[in-house]
Write a structure and sequence with these properties.
The complex is a heterodimer.
Chain A: H1 2-14, H2 18-40, H3 43-60, H4 70-91, H5 130-143, H6 146-157, H7 162-169, H8 173-193
Chain B: H1 10-17, H2 23-35, H3 37-53, E1 65-68, H4 77-88, E2 97-100, H5 101-123, E3 127-129, E4 137-139, H6 166-211, H7 220-317
Antiparallel strand pairs in B: 1-2, 3-4
The chains are: A mainly alpha, B mainly alpha.
C-alpha cells in the first residue's frame, strides 16, 4: 500500500510537482535522519546528512529510472553522504569519542560518563535504565566497522531487503549478508563484554 | 544417507534469520539446524542480540525541512509582493534554500502583525482619551477634538476665605486632570498624524513598486529597510510619548497636591487669624467692661463715703 502511494508521489515529484516533493520529504525525513543518527550518534551530523541527502534527491530525482527502486536509491545517496563525511573526518584525524585514550580494545568501556556507577558491571543484579541502555546500544553500534555498521542499521532499523542494501551500497547480496553476519556477531560479543543481557536490562512492564 | 552434507553458509543463515528464504530453502536450513544444536544455539544467540539491539529506538526529530525555491507560493498576502519580486530580481540566482518552516512562519507572522497593527491604528482613526468626567475612553472613527492648549491656566485657589468648600476643591482637582488629559490627547493626535504620513509613504512605496517595471521597483532589501526604518521611528515616537505622558502625569499630580496643601495651609492661617481677632475683641470688650464696672464701683464708693461723711457732719451740729 505504502509503496503504491510512494510511487505516485515520486512520479509527481519527479515531474516537478513541488508539493509532491515536499510531501515526499515529509515521508522520508524521519527515516533518513535516524539512519544517519545511528551511524554517527550525533544530532548535528545527522541533520547535515539529512539536508544534503534531500538536496541531492531534489537535484537528481529526474535521473531515477525505476520508481519502484526509490528506496534503495534514497539510501544510496544517504550512505554516500555518510561515507563522504567519514573520509572527511579521517583526513581531519578526529578520534572517535567512544574510544578511550588509545588503550587496546579490551579495555574500552562504554560508561565514560557514568563514573558513579563504576562497579556496575560487577554486580549481576544491576538494572539498566532505558536511556542508559539506548546510549550503550548506540555505542555498541559505533564499535562496529563502518561497513558492518551500515549494513546492520539498514537491515535491523531501516528494514531494507538484502537486495536493496546491495543496490544501495553497490555490493553483492552475499557480501551484504556476510557483513551483517559478522556485524551481528561482533555486537553479540560486545554486549557480552558489557554484560548487557535480558537479566540486566530493566524491561518496562 | 546423504553424503552431500548440507551446510548453509553465513549468507544463507542470514537470509534464514531474516526470513528472506523461499519455502524449499527455508526448510533445508530448518532441518540442518535441528540436526546441529551448536549451529542452532549460535543462531539463537544472534537472534537474542537482535532483540536487544532492537531496543534502540528512534530519535524524535524536529519539523521536517521545507524546500523553498524561487517559484514557491506564499500564503501571507503582505509578503506576496516581495516574493514575486524575488523571482524577477536579478540579484538572487535560482538557488534552493532549505529553511525550517517554523522559523519562516514566525518571522513572517511577526512582520505581518506589526504592519497590521500600525495600519489598523491609523486607518480606523483610533483615539485614546483620558481625564475629565468620562474617565479613560478608546474610540474609533471620531474626529480629533480641537486641542485645548490655548485654554487659560488652571484657577489658582483663593487664599483666605471664610470657609473651606468641598466642591471648590473637587473642581480644582478635576481642572488639573482635564488639563493633563488634553495635553495627552494633543500628543496622541500628533503621533497619529505622523503614523498616517508614514503609512501613506509605505503605501506610496508599494504603489510605485507595482507600477514600475521589472528592475525599476524597490528590491526586497530596500523595502525591508524602509519598513525597518518606519518601525524604528514608530517605536521611538511611542516610547517618547509614553515617557512624556508618565512624566506629565507625575508633574500634574505633584503640582495638584502641592497647590492643595498650600490652599489648606492658607485656610488654616486665615482661620487662626479669625480666631485671634475674635479673642482679642472679646478681650477688649471684657477689659472695657471691667473698666466701666471699676468706674461705677469707684463712684458708688465715693457716694457712700460722701453720704457717710454728711451724716457725721449733721450729727456733730446738733
Amino acid at each position: 500500500m505504502q509503496m503504491v502511494h510512494d510511487e505516485v508521489l515520486i512520479s509527481k515529484a519527479r515531474n516537478g510537482d513541488e508539493k509532491a516533493f515536499n510531501h515526499l520529504v515529509n515521508l522520508w525525513h524521519n527515516r533518513i535522519y535516524n539512519f544517519a543518527f545511528k551511524y554517527f550518534a550525533d544530532h548535528d551530523m545527522a541533520m547535515e546528512i539529512t539536508q544534503s541527502t534531500f538536496i541531492a534527491v531534489y537535484k537528481n530525482l529526474k535521473k531515477l529510472e525505476q520508481v519502484d527502486r526509490f528506496r534503495s536509491w534514497l539510501y544510496r545517496i544517504a550512505s554516500n553522504k555518510c561515507h563522504e563525511e567519514d573520509r572527511r573526518n579521517k583526513r581531519r584525524w578526529t578520534v572517535s569519542l567512544f574510544k578511550s585514550s588509545g588503550k587496546d580494545e579490551e579495555d574500552t568501556t562504554p560508561w565514560g560518563k557514568f563514573e558513579k556507577d563504576n562497579n556496575r558491571f560487577a554486580n549481576p543484579d544491576q538494572q539498566y535504565q532505558k536511556n542508559e541502555l539506548a546510549q550503550m546500544l548506540q555505542r555498541a553500534l559505533k564499535e562496529l566497522s563502518e561497513e558492518q555498521r551500515i549494513v546492520v542499521i539498514m537491515k535491523e532499523y531501516e528494514g531494507l531487503k538484502f537486495r536493496e542494501i546491495a543496490d544501495a551500497l553497490n555490493i553483492s547480496e552475499n557480501t551484504a549478508k556476510s557483513r551483517l553476519y559478522y556485524g551481528l556477531n561482533a555486537l553479540r560479543k560486545i554486549l557480552q563484554k558489557w554484560n548487557i543481557n535480558k537479566e540486566t536490562i530493566h524491561y518496562e512492564s | 544417507m546423504n553424503h552431500n552434507k548440507y551446510i548453509p553458509d553465513e549468507a544463507t543463515l542470514m537470509a534464514y534469520l531474516y526470513e528472506e528464504l523461499k519455502g524449499a530453502e527455508h526448510k533445508k536450513v530448518e532441518a540442518y539446524l535441528e540436526q546441529n544444536p551448536e549451529a542452532k544455539a549460535e543462531l539463537e544467540g544472534l537472534q537474542s542480540t537482535r532483540g536487544i539491539m532492537g531496543l534502540l529506538g528512534d530519535q524524535k526529530v524536529e519539523q521536517p525541512l521545507v524546500l523553498m525555491t524561487n517559484s514557491s507560493e506564499q500564503s501571507m498576502p503582505t509578503t506576496a509582493a516581495w516574493h514575486s519580486e524575488t523571482a524577477s530580481s536579478a540579484i538572487t540566482k535560482p538557488k534552493e534554500k532549505l529553511i525550517t518552516m517554523r522559523f519562516a512562519r514566525t518571522m513572517i507572522g511577526i512582520a505581518a502583525a506589526i504592519v497590521l497593527v500600525f495600519l489598523m491604528g491609523a486607518l480606523t482613526n483610533l483615539q485614546i482619551k483620558s481625564g475629565g468626567n468620562e474617565g479613560f475612553a478608546i474610540s474609533f472613527g471620531a474626529d480629533t477634538p480641537p486641542s485645548h492648549s490655548s485654554q487659560a491656566n488652571t484657577q489658582k485657589p483663593t487664599i483666605i476665605r471664610e470657609k473651606v468648600d468641598k466642591d471648590e476643591v473637587q473642581k480644582l482637582l478635576s481642572a488639573y486632570l482635564k488639563n493633563y488629559g488634553d495635553n495627552f490627547t494633543q500628543k496622541l493626535g500628533s503621533l497619529e498624524q505622523k503614523m498616517r504620513i508614514q503609512n501613506q509613504q509605505v503605501l506610496n512605496a508599494q504603489k510605485t513598486k507595482k507600477t514600475s517595471g521589472e528592475g525599476n521597483g524597490f528590491t526586497v532589501t530596500e523595502v525591508q529597510m524602509m519598513l525597518d526604518n518606519l518601525k524604528k521611528d514608530n517605536l521611538k515616537t511611542m516610547v517618547e510619548l509614553i515617557r512624556l505622558s508618565n512624566k506629565d502625569q507625575r508633574d500634574y499630580v505633584g503640582r495638584a497636591i502641592a497647590d492643595y496643601a498650600r490652599f489648606m495651609d492658607d485656610q488654616r492661617d486665615s482661620d487662626l487669624k479669625n480666631i485671634n481677632r475674635t479673642i482679642s475683641n472679646l478681650d477688649n470688650r471684657t477689659k472695657s467692661q471691667q473698666i466701666q464696672s471699676d468706674r461705677l464701683l469707684a463712684r458708688v464708693i465715693e457716694r457712700v463715703n460722701q453720704s457717710q461723711s454728711n451724716k457725721k457732719d449733721d450729727k456733730n451740729r446738733r
